[in-house]
Amino acid sequence: MKLKLYFIFLALCLLFLIAESNALEPIVINSVLPSSDVVKKHEKIELTVDFKTEYKNPFDPDDVDLSAVFISPSKKEFKIPGFLYSGEVSSDGVSQPLWKIRFTPAEEGEWRYYVMVKNKRGSAKSDVRKFNCTLSNDKGFIRVSKSDPYYFEYTDGAFFYPIGFNVCWALGATTYRYEEYYKAIAENGGNWSRLWMCSWGVALEWKKDKAYGGLRVYNLKNAKKIDEILELAKEYGIHIQLVINNHGQLSIATNAEWKDNPYNAKNGGPCQRPDEFFTNSEAIRFFKNRLRYIIARWGYSPNIFAWELWNEVDLTDYFNEGKVERWHKEMIDFINEIDLYGHMITTSYAKPLDYNLWKAPEISYSQVHLFSDTLIEETIFWAKEFKKRYNKPALIAEVASTAREGTIERSEDPNGIRFHNALWSSFLSSASGTAMYWWWDSYIKGNNLYYHLKPIANFISNEERRNKKLEELKYEVLNPKGVYGTLSFTPFLDWQPSTSSEFVVGNDGRISNIEGLSRFFQGQGHPEMKVTPIFNVDYPKDGYFVVNVDMISQFGAEIEIWLDDEIKSKSPFEPSMSYQRVDESFTIEMPAGKHRIKIENKGPDWFRVRNITLKNYALPLMIKGLQDETEAYVWFKNREDTVDNYKAQTKCFPIENPKVQLIGLKNGKYKIEYYDTVLGKTIQVQEGTCSNNVLILSPPTFLTDLACKVKLIP
Hints:
single chain, alpha+beta, Immunoglobulin-like, TIM Barrel, Jelly Rolls, 4 domains, 6-stranded mixed β-sheet, 6-stranded antiparallel β-sheet, 38 strands
């Protein structure tokens, strides 16, 4: 009897399994339609795949996984993930799904490919198809140069030097505003921009509302916008640094968005706190799925300059450097597994601190974000510092003044002095591209400043920066002398103690150890960070020394300015309910001659310095540049051509018949080409002879600035 019951039980189980398997439809690939059977090298082939199977979440490869294997003429295999292109996604699945696979061949000849679909229940494979890849003039993808680790090049080896500005979002139902920006960049010789996948822009995943579907449900309308943006980028030759996350998404303090983040447990996500995004296993799995979708849909494009995993990740709440570093390395390993095109990968921080992640070989290049009133000096310093620290390309990816709104920049600087200075100082630095200005909408577009790109683009055209030993220019100003104007500088360090206490301020504007001066002058509240700086000055005539303060601790502070061991100015800052934003200047009169100036804080807590100004002090001619043994790039800048002087309606007088000697060039004859940085053209060509490793330059009279190329004649 027991044996009979056992066999009946086995029969019932078998019948159940048969019924269950019959209920599950097999995966069927109905069609694979290629966009063409002939594709140019580095151009896209797009497959539209119609298949039938059961799944609920089309964005989870554990639920449904579409891919294709492409086999090159040289028998190399490339497995490329597919993606849901369009459809109506709901909790029950997808209606009218349209699936695609995109691939960019890099080898001429006959390619073969087949498509696969799989899920937990099985898999299916298409028959093998063919397409032919033909010759094209496309240069390919951009990478770090194989011959020079500080610069970039295309797949075919051609040099790439980024020129552009940020266009991180452009609000509107269509992409016409992106076209306006990209067209303007291209028409003025630019080739580079940044795009944020932010919640108010083109994010894929955000809190469920009218625009977004919530966690693990991607916004296909925004995805289509990015398709269109990349097509515009291709049309205009713009290379996009795609920023996947921005700091506010994980913050309740800085540009706070955490309350609407779909990863927040309050919105159904796996994370109780913002920082758990970097450690929670579910959050990591969900984000990898998003990365997979991003690479499947847009990884084909040579117009993707790089994947930027985070914008200013140090501004996320409960920031922990170690956890963030480990998260980045895990994500980069994942990207490298599926992005077979080898796009560069980077990230960014708000502060130019020595984060360990920059040293990681997984990070293709480092970035600096600078918001300062002394952009020229800081751009040059930080580009040099990052190159020295990390032995890889360095880009100034965000730059602007300390103005907190673009509308302020627009009204203060209608002629684009700051934009112009950022472009030229970055080229005359160790940076691997021009600095990207931040206020693209209110400032650049608002004042129609696009034209500033063209002169620098023309100057750079056909200039090869790779494999040259370019160092900071060595020079001496011979003339004009006797005319002295204003020198203004901003301390380089932020919330860090000064690393130097003695500074020598030269009349040519060069300041020793300036990179070691902090903006925060500490009082009694942080004795471990307190450093009292002393400035050694040499006034050629009577003048003034001015300290401009822009922020004070809520606990109060006190500023004292000492001249040669005698106190000349003392002002207390009273405590308040919170830190105070101020705009106050403290001035002492300076007699001609050599002096020592000390700035002391004996108050309860810190004050922050916006800048320090020395009036009747500096030569009007500022010089920046790079050189090696046989060539030099020189930028002559009128120190009085500033936004502050424009606001004060102070007239800028021309610099007449200046004379400068360059030191350290190889002896011989040189071609000296002077260049108008506004009109964008050569205005004078001279020949000069370098003797005893000294070459004399005699540029023509100029009002604002002038550039120069110096090259040894073979």
